[in-house]
Amino acid sequence: MHRSYRFFRFGIVLQLAGLAALAACSSAPQQPKFQQEMFDTGASPFSRHFAATSADACEAARRALLSHGYLTTTTRSDTIDASKDFQPSGDKHITVEFHVVCTPGDDAENSSLVYANAVQSGYALKKSDTSASVGLSILGSLSLPIRSNSDAMVKVSSETIQSQKFYGRFFDYVDQYLRTVVKAVPVPQPSKIKASELPASPPAAPSAPSTPSAPLTPATASAPAAASTSAPADTARNGLASQPAPTAP
After folding, report:
1. Any idea where the domains of the chain sit in the sequence?
2. Which of 87, 128, 179, 248 is the most buried (most CB within 10 A)?
3. Which strand (E) or helix (H) includes residue 9?
4. 35: buried, middle or exposed (CB in 10 Å: 19+, 13-18, 0-12)?
5. Rounded to an integer, what is the distance from CA 202 to the centroid of its chain?
6. In the chain, count of helices (H) and strands (E)?
7. Is 120 exposed, middle or buried (0-12, 13-18, 19+ CB in 10 A)?
């Protein structure tokens, strides 16, 4: 009996020690989040290099956010602000705000550096009680309390998203838009030339006007025939004249 009493007291001591240690741990102040921030020189999930100008990279980021349902609130050649709302349950609401900044790289014409960070804010439905009193002068200083309840969405959390996979998927999608849409050079297609667009042919050189021939009269019309009929006679006559006269025997 004496031995069991010792074990009982020893168990009580252990329980008290455990409760004291738990209370000490819970009462110890936790280290703030900003003191856990380590600015190391390793790879950052919030930035990535692209082989394009900063304007093209921001345009690809804008298209990537719009294609996933984000509402752009600020759009400039070097800055994009967008937000998207989520409703996980009836009394909870989550908003993701995206902020993108595009800066030129080492070669401003062919490289750029894009920074992105997203903040997730949580809202919860809270009920608030409001009370008012009404004084009745007839009954003296008697006051009647009036209470009413109202529901409102109250911001309960806000934190920058730290997931490397989250930003990796975003930058991969920006690179896809940059290669397929923004920097894609359209292939020129042969255009069909309409007949109305053909160059007009030069006008033909004007020909020399022909002189009208004089109408033939009956006299002139018969003149060639007469000349042709008289030609053999003249030839015969000339030939006889040109022959030597026969000599007398």
Report:
1. 44-125+152-182
2. 179
3. helix 2-27
4. exposed
5. 49
6. 4, 6
7. middle
| C-beta separation of 135 from 165 below 8 A | no
Mapped onto helix, strand or coil, the DSSP state of residue 203 is: coil
First to last CA, the chain: 211
User: How far is the C-alpha of 158 from the C-alpha of 154, rounded, in Å?
Assistant: 12
Q: Residue 100 CA to chain centroid, in angstroms?
A: 15
- Residue 109: the pLDDT is 84
The Cα–Cα gap between 201 and 229 comes to: 55
Instruction: Give the amino acid at 141.
Output: S
Whole-number Cα distances in Å, 174 to 60, 73, 161: 5, 19, 18
Q: Is the pTM of the predicted complex or chain greater than 0.70?
A: no
Q: Tell me the β-bridge partners of 102.
A: 114
Which of 83, 61, 59 is closest to 72 using CA atoms?
Answer: 83
Class of domain 44-125+152-182: alpha beta
Q: What is the distance, to the nearest Å, from the Cα of residue 238 to the centroid of all Cα atoms in its chain? A: 109
Q: Which residue, 187, 180, 163, is CA-closest to 59?
A: 180
The residue to which tokens 């984000």 are assigned: 70
pLDDT of residue 173: 94
| Residue range 6-44, pLDDT digits in tens | 544 555 555 656 556 655 554 555 666 666 677 777 778
Distance of CA 7 to the CA centre of its chain: 76
Asked whether 185 and 157 are in contact (CB, 8 A), the reply is no
Average pLDDT, the chain: 73
Contacts of 70 (CB under 8 A, 6+ apart): 82, 83, 84, 98
